[in-house]
Amino acid sequence: MSGILVLAEHRRGELRAATLEAIGAAGQLKAAVGGEVSVAVIAADPSAFVPAVSVGAVDEVVTITAPEAATFEPHLYEQALNGLIAARKPALVLLPHSVDSWALAPAVAIANGLGFATDVFGLQVEDGAIVATRAGYQEKVFVEIDFPGREGVLVTLRGGAFEPASGPAQPRVTPFEAGDAQRRSRHLEWRDPPATGGIDIPGSPFILSIGRGVGDEANVSQFLELAEGLGATLGCSRPIADNGWLPKARQVGQSGQLAAKCNLYVAMGISGSVQHQWGMKHVENIIAVNKDPEASIFSIARYGIVGDMLEIAEEVRKQKGL
Amino acid sequence: MKILVPVKRVASLDDEFELRDDGRDVDPDFCEFDLNEFDEYALETAVLIKESAPEGAVEVVVLTIGPDDADDTLRKALAKGADRAIRVDDADLGDADRVAIARAIAKVAEREEPGLVLCGAQSSDFGHAQTGMSVAALLGWPRVAVVSRLDYAPGTATATVERELEGGLVERLEVETPAVLTIQLGINTPRYASLRAIKQANAKAIESLAPADLGLSAGETGGAGALSRVRRVYVPERGKSEMIEGTPAQQAARLLEIIEEVQG
Ligand SMILES: Cc1cc2nc3c(=O)[nH]c(=O)nc-3n(C[C@H](O)[C@H](O)[C@H](O)COP(=O)(O)OP(=O)(O)OC[C@H]3O[C@@H](n4cnc5c(N)ncnc54)[C@H](O)[C@@H]3O)c2cc1C
Ligand SMILES: Nc1ncnc2c1ncn2[C@@H]1O[C@H](COP(=O)(O)O)[C@@H](O)[C@H]1O
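ok -> structure tokens follow
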């Protein structure tokens, strides 16, 4: 029982960037955990991904050819990963905290009796045992988790929490036979998100975003005007797009857009969920307006205003003559 | 056919709160509880399937693993269209984690033999995103996580679902049933409960079970059935924003100043 196993995540022929973060985390922990860092690639043609995962501290790439796994299928992946874990007994298994992993990780942890924690942003080794840190109560507290009596541990890693691995590596490539597996679902089609209609969250340097604190659909249009008056692009959190109050193209976050070029982000009535933060927490100047002084958005914002977003917006409009 | 909807009572913290004496959780006296938002969507999904089937063909059963107080959560679900409610008392579950909770849910599913189990994609307080898919793994059933659309005619051998991925990409797929699905926000518009429905829900009986009634062995319950243990909970020292104080007018003025400064 030693070493770290990372599962590569890929979609539509491309390695997902979160895999590089998992490899980065493995590199940080390698000395403390002991053993090698291996990356498993499960795919119809895994060799295609070998160059992309040959980075950082990777010693070995394990290729598992699964002709039916052209797209992710949790039952096929589960079978393949279970076989590999049973054969190798890694001390630590790392997956991104992604939608694919949500369907996969619990089954693998249970089948192998591994310690298990999800959405982890801190990992340490203490006296040879893994300790994981995640958040709780809407990000208001941190929770340290240990895994007494568990020989191996599987964790899924929060996006953006670990530095992505970089620099080339020369791993050996080992094919692994996973055996036959039964799929239980069948891919029908991909559907790309609807066209953005000219709304450019990724390219916008200044975004004013509204969340559920806006209260009512009738209040939304004034923020469109306010954003326009200030020269900002209007963004929003997921519930606003889910309600159909604003188009999905304005949604910032994990299942929406990344505010990639943003330098100034005003978040009004947004609590700061991890999925929203994924899209904006890197922004240098975040100003949060929230009536809850303990909202987690204040822990990543540079400036904070505790107050009613409608009242603040009203004052801004008045003073700007909008 | 039955649809089983496991629902969680989630906690939000008061402005000021204290930790429990053992330092491993927040003192529940400083928590307010409500039905997990994701479960409202899962429940609505189940109720919509019931309503589109012939009268009496589909029964929606809600289930929670929790203390007496969690009956309120079940009553809310009953008022929003569930037909029957079960609570498994968690007094004996001690250090249960999400996997240990899933063991109890899976036992109830074995008893009820539903055609679908619909969980929330995650809990809004802790966001583990483990429970539903653990139930599927324990049952050995097909599973799909983060479902944003479901087409299912009761009694058929497959369902067509969409799962929503990072960046808003959608995958449409067909999944064998019985299946466990976890439901994403926005899949539908959860209804409000009418006053009449709330009254009726308050009059309904809630079936109460102990873990032992489910045939869970000692090695499967609580900490023994868990794959993780909370060692410590703490309030992190972390960057706090520079707070802009004053009247709303003063705060707005400073906000405009900062916007100008940053934009140069
Ligand atoms: C797989 C997955 C993907 C997701 N992707 C995304 C995503 O891409 N983007 C996203 O945003 N979410 C996403 N979510 C949802 C996310 O988990 C949260 O539910 C969501 O971000 C909450 O939005 P919110 O902050 O607007 O609402 P809430 O969490 O309800 O917060 C509202 C805030 O407004 C404050 N408030 C209320 N009234 C006022 C007022 N008058 N003035 C000022 N403040 C007020 C409250 O104090 C509170 O902090 C995703 C979830 C899942 C499971
Ligand atoms: N105590 C519980 N009782 C019933 N269902 C639960 C419980 N805890 C979690 N769930 C289910 O699991 C989902 C949340 O998953 P998780 O984020 O892993 O807690 C909820 O939406 C419920 O469907």
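The radius of gyration of chain B is 21 Å.
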